[in-house]
Amino acid sequence: MNIDILTLFPEMFNSIMGESIIGRARNKGIIKINPINIRDFSKNKHNRVDDYPYGGGSGMVLMNQPLFDALKSITQNRKNSRIVYLTPKGKTYNQKIAKVLSNEENLVLLCGHYEGIDQRIIDEWVTDEISIGDYVLTGGELPAMVLIDSIARLIPGVLGKSESFIDESFYSGLLEYPHYTRPSNYKGRKVPEILLSGNHKLIDEWRTKESIRITIERRPDLIAKLFKRDDISMKEKVKLKKMINEVIKISNSKV
Ligand code: ADE
């Protein structure tokens, strides 16, 4: 996958996106991350990239000319590039959108600054407007990195075997079960006995039930969503329902 990022701060990407799993995927050539400085396209003699908003008011708007030229140059050899503008006004990002975007060959991420960009650039070029949540950041760079990280880990070969995720079952829509490592007794707090048993069937069952318990407790909305998903079979849903009932029974018996 090829990801072009239009930004005023390209250095932000090379440090953070050069480490760990994403850095390794870049080195392996599975993903290409190209931060492009919008300022390099400015034809203004002072390299300016912002201008005053029509109608007055506070704040500045990113100038059309450098953005237009940058977008034209990126897309000239590539038809059908998806162009995502990061903005608090966009559709709220989630795992489903990450999955859709992970199937793209070319992705352009446009990071706004100041008050944003001219509406006509959005109308002409942008295919998706995405927000990473209901809060306002100073620019689109951190949201772009959130997208890249979450998309990259879904691309085959990016995660190692031990890091890989389970998809296409209800496990992918549940919160994670708790993890433990050595020592088995940490300041008097013991690891659940079952995890030391070596019985993998029972361990898997315990983990699934813990996932269900935590999801019911913290995000009951996610449980409801699982039953609406059409990539989960009826058989899986029946199994899930049975496990939910068992978890509820156990927690009721503890009260
Ligand atoms: N730019 C500023 N805030 C943002 C947000 N919450 N999501 C996406 N882009 C943004």
From TrEMBL:
<keyword id="KW-0808">Transferase</keyword>
<protein>
    <recommendedName>
        <fullName>tRNA (guanine-N(1)-)-methyltransferase</fullName>
        <ecNumber>2.1.1.228</ecNumber>
    </recommendedName>
</protein>
<feature type="binding site">
    <location>
        <position position="112"/>
    </location>
    <ligand>
        <name>S-adenosyl-L-methionine</name>
    </ligand>
</feature>
<dbReference type="GO" id="GO:0005829">
    <property type="term" value="C:cytosol"/>
</dbReference>
<keyword id="KW-0489">Methyltransferase</keyword>
<comment type="function">
    <text>Specifically methylates guanosine-37 in various tRNAs.</text>
</comment>
<comment type="subunit">
    <text>Homodimer.</text>
</comment>
<dbReference type="GO" id="GO:0052906">
    <property type="term" value="F:tRNA (guanine(37)-N1)-methyltransferase activity"/>
</dbReference>
<dbReference type="Pfam" id="PF01746">
    <property type="entry name" value="tRNA_m1G_MT"/>
</dbReference>
<dbReference type="InterPro" id="IPR002649">
    <property type="entry name" value="tRNA_m1G_MeTrfase_TrmD"/>
</dbReference>
<dbReference type="InterPro" id="IPR016009">
    <property type="entry name" value="tRNA_MeTrfase_TRMD/TRM10"/>
</dbReference>
<keyword id="KW-0819">tRNA processing</keyword>
<dbReference type="InterPro" id="IPR029026">
    <property type="entry name" value="tRNA_m1G_MTases_N"/>
</dbReference>
<dbReference type="InterPro" id="IPR023148">
    <property type="entry name" value="tRNA_m1G_MeTrfase_C_sf"/>
</dbReference>
<dbReference type="InterPro" id="IPR029028">
    <property type="entry name" value="Alpha/beta_knot_MTases"/>
</dbReference>
<keyword id="KW-0949">S-adenosyl-L-methionine</keyword>
<comment type="similarity">
    <text>Belongs to the RNA methyltransferase TrmD family.</text>
</comment>
<feature type="domain" description="tRNA methyltransferase TRMD/TRM10-type">
    <location>
        <begin position="1"/>
        <end position="224"/>
    </location>
</feature>
<keyword id="KW-0963">Cytoplasm</keyword>
<feature type="binding site">
    <location>
        <begin position="132"/>
        <end position="137"/>
    </location>
    <ligand>
        <name>S-adenosyl-L-methionine</name>
    </ligand>
</feature>
<dbReference type="GO" id="GO:0002939">
    <property type="term" value="P:tRNA N1-guanine methylation"/>
</dbReference>
